[in-house]
Amino acid sequence: MSAETTDFPCPKGLSERSQAIWEGVVPSRGRGAGRRTMIEEALRSLDQADRARAALADEELTTVTKTTGAVHLHPLLKCEREFRGQFSKLWGQLGLNCWSSEDNAPGSPSLENILASMKPDPPADEEEDEDDLLDDDFEEEDDEIDHLGPRLPHSVKNTP
Description:
Blueprint: H1 3-6, H2 16-29, H3 33-56, E1 62-64, E2 71-73, H4 75-93, H5 111-117, H6 130-146
Antiparallel strand pairs: 1-2
């Protein structure tokens, strides 16, 4: 464990996989107590999903109701889906994804790009009059509509 992760020790009860994820994510993306709590809950959900999958390894994916003969998904399969969904939801809310910028994944923005996009726009030298902006919008709409053909007067209504 690095000195950086000792500031935020890994919670007890996490799997080895989740401990490794914790140590990889928390030092850089989990500085706040709230974020660490969400990361911990996400990893606990991931562990539960993994446990359900392991329990399913020797089971059929469907079960049959004895009285009616109806075929249903195995209850553990439903549990796994729920826990993976919980993990995915929390991970997404934290702004984390499965790809690190080190993986050079397509469409995966680096942290630097994310931070750069959050900077406010510099103030404009001249502020346009609001009426001018509205007029520009209507002119653009008129240009887009012109290719549709002649306009009908407003008094003409569609009749079936």
